[in-house]
Structure formats: C-alpha cells, structure tokens
Amino acid sequence: MSLPPSAAPMSSSEFIAALRGLSHRYWGTHPFHVRMHGGGLSEYELKIWAANRWYYQCVLPQKDAAIISNCPVPEIRREWLDRIAYHDGAKAGDGGIERWLRLCTAVGLGREEVLDQRHVAPGVRFAVDAYVTFARTKPWLEAVASGLTEMFAGHLMQRRVADMLANYSWIAREDLAYFTDRIDKVSGEGKGTLDIVVRHAVTREQQEKAIAALSFKTDVLWSMLDAIERAAAKE
Ligand SMILES: O=C(O)c1cc(C(=O)O)c2c(n1)C(=O)C(=O)c1cc(C(=O)O)[nH]c1-2
Fold this sequence. Notes:
- By secondary structure, the protein is mainly α.
- 72% of the residues lie in helices and 0% in strands.
- Helix 3 (43-70) packs antiparallel against helix 4, helix 3 (43-70) runs antiparallel to helix 11 and helix 8 crosses helix 11 (204-232).
- The site of pyrroloquinoline quinone has 9 residues, from helix 9 and helix 10.
C-alpha cells in the first residue's frame, strides 16, 4: 500500500490493534498444528515436524545477530543480545537449541539425523532462509517487527504442552523443557518487542512497514508448516 508522505501516524492503540489483528494469520490455526494439538499426528509426522523445526531453531541466533549488526541503537543491541545467549546457551550442551534436541530424541529421532538436517524439506529451508535474509537486508526496525509473532506464541506453547502430554503417551513433561522453559520468556520478549516497535515506528510509513513485516513473518511460519505437512505425508 502506498501512502501520501503526509499521512498521519496511527495512535499507539490503533497501531497495536493493527499488529494484533494479524493473529488470524498466525500458525496456531494451521491445519497441521490443529492436528498436532488434537493428537492426530502419527509418530512419523511428529518426527518430521521436530526435525524440520530444528532448522528454524538453528538459524534464530543468526537472524538476531543480523538485527544487532544493522542496529545503531545501543540499548536495543544490549536487549537483543540476550536472545542469542538464550538459544546458544552459555556453553556447549546448554541453551534452547539443546532443549530442542532433547525433544527430537523423545519423538524417536537420532541426534545424528537431526544435526545433519537430512529431513529438512526444501520449502522449510526456503522459508526459514527468507526470514534470515529479511533480517540481514531490511532496516533493523522492520526486522525487529517481524519477530512480533512472539506476541502470539506464549498461549500456543502453553496449549501445546498440555495437548502433547494428553495425546502422545511417549512424550514426558521433561521432554517438553524447550516449551516449558520458553513460555514466560517468549511472552516477555513479545511484550518487549512490541514496546520497541511502538516507540520507534513513529511515522505512518514506518508503522505500515512494521505491519507488513509481521505479515511477512506469519507467511514464513505458515509456509514452514505447509512444507512440513507435505513432507510428513510421504511415508
Ligand atoms: O513454538 C512456537 O510456536 C514458537 C513460535 C515462534 C514464533 O511465533 O515465531 C517462536 C518460537 N516458538 C520460539 O521458541 C522462539 O524462540 C522464537 C523466536 C522467534 C523469533 O522470531 O525471533 N520466534 C519464535
């Protein structure tokens, strides 16, 4: 949408409502997630899901490092660093990435077949790489805004833990440590990101670009699940 340069900015509450209004595009309502939460996935489908999401988990620190490298504002860089440390951990064998591997093992994958990415579907690679390229090439504020899907993630993760425990007998609570550890963190990050975006997107054009960035990210996540669903249907 192209706006006249003089278009008035939205009020903060209008802007936030426009961002939150994209929740219907979020992957919580994707048929694959609906089936996962309802207990309808086979063991094989769960494996393919976990092995493919591994690729997303792996690149998140690179995406966040790209945001930092493009951002001239010290307090944003300082705040953002924590995300990289969270996923990578303070030392090897620590961190979010390791907790994701634990979930992979619980669904029956060997470490090796996750690490060598043999199950990663082309469409997942394409979508996830597009997210990293977005962060590398767009202004930092748009890249930050694209992470606002985290606003929607806390509730979904909370439901996921309950639904997976109820529906997949071979998965124990400890196996879901990635999610149980992440629920509060992701909700906090979502609030922090929204605060940054509202403070820094002050013109109408910046606001529209932030909305478009979040919309792009919902497409990334949706496309990932489309590709996972197709890859998992092959067996
Ligand atoms: O399990 C989920 O449904 C889910 C969704 C999202 C998201 O909405 O992007 C993230 C995460 N998990 C997550 O664990 C995570 O660390 C994360 C980082 C980001 C991001 O864009 O920087 N999204 C998400």
